[in-house]
Each structure stands twice: as C-alpha cells, then as structure tokens.
C-alpha cells in the first residue's frame, strides 16, 4: 500500500522519526568524544597554570607550552605538589586538579554553610617557590577566569587571564601581554600587612606600573566594566586563600 505523503500525519511522523534518529546519533557522537574533550580540557588547564608560572613555549614567551609538552612540563614543575585549601589548612592531593571553581561557587550559593574547596599548586622555578591559585568572575558579557602565581611573600610572579565573550580589542585584551605583565611584582597586601588584592584602575597615575606597592595596575582603555570584573575577581578570589597564605609567613 502506497504511503500518502501529502497528509499532515506523515509530515509529523517523519519529523518525529528524524528528531529521534538525529538525536540518537548526536548523543552517540557526544558520548564517544567525551573522553577526548575531557583530556583536551585537562591539557588546556595545565597550559594555563604553567603559563601563570612563566613556563611558556620555548620559541614564544607569549604563548603557552605546546599541548604535546603540557603533561611532561606539568609533571616536571608541579607533579603531585597539589593541594586542596580549606580556610587555613591545605591537604596535599592530586584531586585538587579536578576542582571546578564555578561548581564550588554554585555549591556555596546552594548552601551558605558549605566550605568551599580551593585548588593550589606549589611549584619551583629557577630555585624560587611559587603558589599558583585559581579565580573566576564576571566580565562585561560573560565569565572571566584566571590563574596567578605568587611567591612566599605574596608578590605576584605571573598571571593568566581568559574570557568567554569580552569585546575584541577592548575587554578581550585581558589576555594580552601588555595587561597581564603589569601584574608581575605587584603585592596583594599593603605596607601594613593588610590584604588589598589588586585593583585595575583607570587613571591610577602610574601608566608604566613602576609602583609595585600601590596594589593597582593601569586599566585597559575602553574596557572599564571588564577591568572592574578583573578587580573583583582578583580581590574575591585571592581573599579566600588569605587564611592559608598567612600560615606561609609563620
């Protein structure tokens, strides 16, 4: 018996079948690719942490180490020297690498009594010990995030910033060397030992960023909201580590 393709019922049934078939195929592809996606995200995270430390591509200091070298470099400089920080305590565990900053923030929103877990990486480069911490915040259009490396005196040794959807040529410039390099040498405590963080400030009177004790860096022209987002991200993100940071000075 011939099928009457002119009926509405045929169109509906055909559409339903196609949705089911295509959906099943996409689900299968997604499932098959999930391990690769997870592995690529882990490699990217290693690259970003290493970048904050100043470990970059040997041929380009402004580029991350190649993906093919990330695992080996991460093992060399950090290895299992990873910690989950809770308040003033730090537990050495490679599970620190699995911490998702956004998910931890969501847990706090859902339960104010939840004790947030913070990831921290201890590393040594050129004989100097550094502590790499993570942070996440909001820019003009979407999420921004980063890693910052500090020495035992809480002086910034390097930083990495990225974003999901900031404006090209403006807020997106938080990824550029001229911005992130300004953070090197900045202190997160003031002269009296009080936590201040680092403010991205427009017209701070120090465009060449010579003063490393003012807890400020010069803002990006035309990107005030993104800059404010970076300031808030750093101040809030680093503040959560302060109880532990203070134990390093004892």
SSE layout and pairings?
Blueprint: H1 8-53, E1 56-57, E2 60-64, H2 67-77, E3 82-86, E4 89-92, H3 101-110, E5 118-125, E6 128-138, E7 143-150, E8 156-163, H4 177-180, E9 199-201, E10 216-218, H5 224-239, H6 242-248
Parallel strand pairs: 9-10
Antiparallel strand pairs: 1-2, 3-4, 3-5, 5-6, 6-7, 7-8
Helix pairs in contact: 1-2
Descriptive keywords:
single chain; alpha+beta; 2 domains; six-stranded antiparallel sheet; 6 helices
In short:
It is built from 6 helices and 10 strands. It has 250 residues and is α+β, with helices and mostly antiparallel strands.
Explain this structure to me?
The chain has 250 residues and is α+β, with helices and mostly antiparallel strands. It folds into two domains: 77 residues, no CATH class; 170 residues, no CATH class. It is 38% helix and 23% strand. It is built from six helices and ten strands; from the N terminus they run αββαββαββββαββαα. The chain has a six-stranded antiparallel β-sheet. It has a two-stranded antiparallel sheet with strand order 1-2. The protein has a two-stranded parallel sheet with strand order 9-10. The protein is globular and about 80 Å long.
